[in-house]
Design a protein that fits this description.
The structure holds two protein chains of two kinds. By secondary structure, chain A is α/β, with parallel strands linked by helices. In chain A, 41% of the residues lie in helices and 18% in strands. Chain B is built from 16 helices and 14 strands. Classes of the chains: A alpha/beta, B alpha+beta.
């Protein structure tokens, strides 16, 4: 699909309406969990058909103008084969006089709307994310292309010492070589460093990925491609709290409600959750923190509204258990036993015992 | 050790009281006021100048109106030295007969207005003679009076001052004079200690406000800076002539009743009541007598104090209809609003004339005018303009019934700011006029109106009536302002929609205008037309006129200080 044609098609429709002095509308899919369904066969959140119509009126004219301006910027980027980061797009708007964005979240929202309206990934309309995709260490060779020579560039992820390889913002062109047995995606940079320092990837014959919170689209896509192409299982290891379950793991596995139109490519349905589960907190007698009201609310909301949780009884039980326990635990809490307990005991035990995982 | 015995050296019959008795004697009214001149409005040089001019102008206007002459006044102030001024006031009134001149100008409490109940500016017969006294006191110079009563009469010229001990005129010159350019009229020339300033409490302001409330008079005014301002009459119609009425029984007090009984020529109590009072017919008179347990045939001469008191009781017990109110001549809503338009450049004006009401047997009418918005500052207390029988009141603004009535009104519901029961804040001027056969001032200097409950009530009602009109205007303005803001918002973003479309579809720049027009049509079509509100459209406003009496900000501060000291 040609993005520029699509942009022009939408613009033309608006233009015709204006010339007839009829109120033009812009239709975008609703970007929330209420507008997705969990397709368990395909393994990700599929976009439903609910849309919001932005009809031109006194109250919507500013956003209307900004959306059109954003579309024009995108068209320009695609036509000149250039890209702009989300932050740069925000700064470009500063030239738009009264229609400029005050803060970046405003421009991000409009950008997400345009992306969803055109049903494309934002890279396809010339916008790239600011953040890095995530860090890699372990038995993996990434084959990239040198931008100057156009030649293949082999990157050996075992040779970064105490550092790591960073996932680029666009991963579609990458190829892989590996002999590892699995991929371990961890939430925090702290845990990743401990595992790298003690070469856990070597001991366990794995590829380590640090997600740094909710995985970026690039990170999700990277894991998906790596897993698909190398036929590797994906294990996810996060903090034992609502954010780790419902934001980090859920998004990695089945995608998000916010950018549901691209979930198909940006999900890792084969991912499994190994910990920290509520049961782990009990069984490993982990030091805990009390749940805050917002945490409890988040858990209840997940049980009630998250199509993924609704499909998996195990997850419902786990969340209910946490509500009852009224506590959460961080993945670094294993250090209470001894610093390398997580490497020596927890991870090997957990990976050997699929019954203790969550789907 | 010295021995002392009380009363030793004094004769036995000489007590302290006897000693004191030698110092006790009559105090003349004039001597009293000489010492208490603040009671008459001569507290400071600045006020003295204003009071003198005010008294002169009040008298001239009263005289002209009574004689049915369209007033033409000449007022001139000449600066003789830094604190000494000559005031010349001349009118085209009926003039004063020769014998009366000395008494009118050089005897306190002598006048024609005190004993009669009719709407007039002067009341007590103190004003101009007090000025003569004050002038003589501060400069030693007599007042120079010229008066002529008709084309075939000679003009009389007097130089006189007051013997303050005896409250009697001392005439130092008395002669006939040629005064050919006038058929009739009076001219007063006074030297006095004073001080001339601009500002809210200035002579300039007084003359201007007088011209506003008396559109039938012409005033040619020359201030000490030799600036001559001619306030030409705006109408040739005299205000409705104020009628004299007899006192209403409800307004009478015992002492006054006894005096009236002593001086009446009637033969019976009943006829005394029917002829000397308003609204008392034979039936009412009989009822009063019955309640007083006195025979209607009682001879007035035989009525003593106790009987008079019974009559007072009788009056109280009897239902008597209110006094006639056609004796009051209001400024009228139209002229009050017109006056405000001339003085203040505002967006919204309204005025209300209340129907006549009665306090203590005296009929009165309250009128209120409001000028809102425009050039007026929004962050200061609203300004008050007060008038009593068309005379502007410039001092003691925070005192009296007007300030009370304005403070007691809930201005928030009319869209103004107000903290507690204070004068509200906002871009507004409120003019309040009381017209009455007897205006109850809180003091002889006639600065503030006494807060009789009936007067307060009428003022509040009039203010509320204006306030409601103001409120609906302010609300409309808010609504329209909101709508205009929204439209401004629309117009701000329309070009962006057009420009984006041009860029997206590669259209010609020349299409922008037609796109803008289409978008405007789409967005504003169903919003309807906006009424124009808040525009200042006031052809009556005369900036030069409005600036008369205005002053530098520094002076204004002094003004406030002075007011503060007073209160």
């Amino acid at each position: 699909m040609n993005v520029v044609d699509e942009i022009k098609k939408v613009s033309k429709m608006i233009y015709e309406k204006v010339k007839k002095e009829e109120k033009p509308t812009i239709e975008t899919p609703i970007r929330s969990l209420s507008n997705v369904e969990y397709d368990i066969k395909e393994g990700y959140f599929k976009l439903l058909s609910k849309t919001k119509e932005r009809t031109l009126s006194a109250t919507t004219i500013k956003t209307f103008a900004q959306t059109l301006r954003m579309m024009a910027l995108s068209k320009n980027l695609v036509e000149t084969e250039d890209v702009a980061t989300k932050r740069e797009a925000y700064y470009v708007s500063k030239n738009w006089g009264d229609a400029r964005f005050k803060e970046q979240p405003e421009s991000d929202t409009v950008m997400d709307d345009v992306e969803a309206m055109l049903m494309v990934n934002r890279e396809q309309i010339g916008f790239i994310p600011e953040e890095k995709g995530g860090d890699i260490a372990g038995d993996l060779t990434v084959i990239d292309i040198d931008s100057e020579s156009g030649k293949e560039l082999k990157i050996d992820c075992t040779k970064f010492g105490s550092g790591a390889y960073s996932i680029p913002s666009s991963v579609e062109h990458l190829k892989f070589e590996t002999k590892a047995k699995f991929i371990l995606a961890v939430e925090t940079a702290g845990m990743f460093q401990r595992l790298v320092k003690h070469k856990y990837w070597k001991k366990s014959n794995s590829i380590l990925i640090s997600m740094g919170g909710v995985p970026t689209r690039a990170c999700r896509r990277f894991i998906r491609r790596l897993s698909d192409e190398m036929k590797l299982p994906v294990y996810v290891f996060t903090d034992g709290d609502p954010y780790g379950f419902l934001n980090i793991y859920r998004t990695l596995k089945v995608g998000s409600g916010n950018a549901a139109h691209i979930n198909k490519y940006f999900c890792v349905p084969q991912a499994k959750f190994i910990g920290v589960t509520p049961l782990d907190i009990e069984e490993y007698k982990l030091p805990t923190h009390p749940l805050k009201d917002v945490d409890v609310k988040r858990l209840k909301d997940g049980i009630k509204n998250d199509p993924f949780v609704q499909e998996h009884k195990e997850w419902q039980n786990a969340l209910l258990k946490m509500i009852k326990m009224k506590v959460r635990a961080e993945q670094q809490a294993f250090a209470a036993h001894h610093l390398n307990f997580v490497i020596d005991t927890y991870l090997p035990d957990k990976i050997k015992n699929p019954k203790k995982w969550l789907p | 050790m010295s021995q002392t015995t009380l009363g030793d050296s004094k004769p036995k019959h000489s007590t302290k009281a006897d000693e004191m008795a030698t110092k006790q004697r009559d105090i003349s009214v004039a001597a009293f006021f000489e010492k208490n001149r603040h009671l008459l409005g001569f507290d400071n040089p600045r006020k003295a100048l204003l009071t003198t001019i005010k008294e002169g102008v009040d008298n001239s206007l009263d005289a002209c109106e009574e004689a049915n002459i369209l007033p033409e006044l000449i007022v001139e102030i000449i600066e003789l030295s830094e604190n000494r001024f000559r005031v010349i006031m001349e009118d085209n009134g009926p003039g004063i007969v020769k014998e009366q001149v000395p008494k009118i100008f050089a005897r306190l409490l002598y006048g024609s207005k005190f004993h009669k109940l009719a709407q007039s500016r002067g009341q007590q017969g103190i004003g101009i003679s007090a000025s003569v006294m004050y002038g003589h006191l501060t400069t030693g110079k007599p007042a120079k009076i010229t008066s002529k009563i008709g084309p075939n009469h000679p003009a009389h010229y007097y130089e006189l001052h007051i013997d303050t001990d005896k409250n009697k005129p001392i005439i130092s010159k008395d002669e006939e004079k040629e005064w050919n350019h006038k058929d009739h009229g009076t001219r007063v020339e006074l030297d006095l200690e004073g001080s001339y300033n601009k500002g809210k409490q200035s002579v300039d302001q007084y003359i201007k406000e007088t011209a506003i409330t008396n559109p039938h008079c012409t005033i040619i005014y020359t201030n000490p800076k030799a600036e001559q301002i001619i306030f030409a009459r705006a109408t040739d119609t005299m205000p409705e002539k104020a009628k004299e009425i007899q006192p209403h029984p409800y307004g009478i007090e015992l002492g006054m009743l006894i005096r009236m009984i002593a001086s009446t020529e009637t033969r019976t109590l009943q006829s005394f009541l029917t002829t000397e009072f308003s609204r008392v017919g034979a039936g009412t008179a009989k009822e009063i007598c019955e309640h007083a347990k006195l025979l209607p045939q009682t001879k007035p001469r035989s009525i003593n104090r106790e009987m008079a008191e019974k009559i007072m009781m009788g009056i109280k017990k009897t239902k008597i209809i209110s006094p006639p109110t056609d004796c009051i001549s209001p400024i009228t809503e139209e002229l009050l609003e017109k006056g405000l338009r001339k003085e203040i450049n505002a967006e919204f004006y309204t005025a209300v004339t209340r129907p006549p009401a009665v306090y203590r047997g005296n009929p009165f009418v309250i009128e209120v005018g409001i000028a809102y918005g425009g050039d007026q500052p929004g962050d200061k207390p609203v300004s008050l303009m007060r008038y009593a029988n068309r005379v502007p009141l410039q001092y003691s603004q925070g005192a009296g019934a007007v300030a009370k009535a304005v403070s007691a009104t809930k201005w928030k519901s009319y869209g103004l700011q107000q903290s507690g029961s204070n004068i509200p804040t906002g871009p507004m001027t409120i003019a309040v006029h009381i017209a009455s056969v007897w205006v109850p001032f809180t003091s002889e200097s006639k600065e503030a109106i006494a807060s009789y409950p009936e007067i307060l009530k009428e003022m509040k009602l009039a203010i509320q009536e204006c306030g409601r009109k103001l409120g609906s205007y302010v609300n409309k303005k808010k609504k329209v302002g909101f709508e205009l803001k929204k439209r401004g918002y629309i117009e701000k973003y329309i070009p962006h929609v057009s420009q984006a479309l041009i860029e997206l579809l590669g259209l010609k720049d020349s299409e922008e205008e037609s796109l803008n027009d289409h978008l405007k049509e789409i967005l504003e079509e169903q919003r309807g037309k906006v009424e124009e509100v808040g525009k200042i459209d006031n052809p009556d406003f005369d900036e030069e006129f409005a600036n008369i009496g205005k002053e530098d900000p520094e002076d204004e501060e002094e003004d406030l200080e002075e007011e503060n000291e007073r209160s």
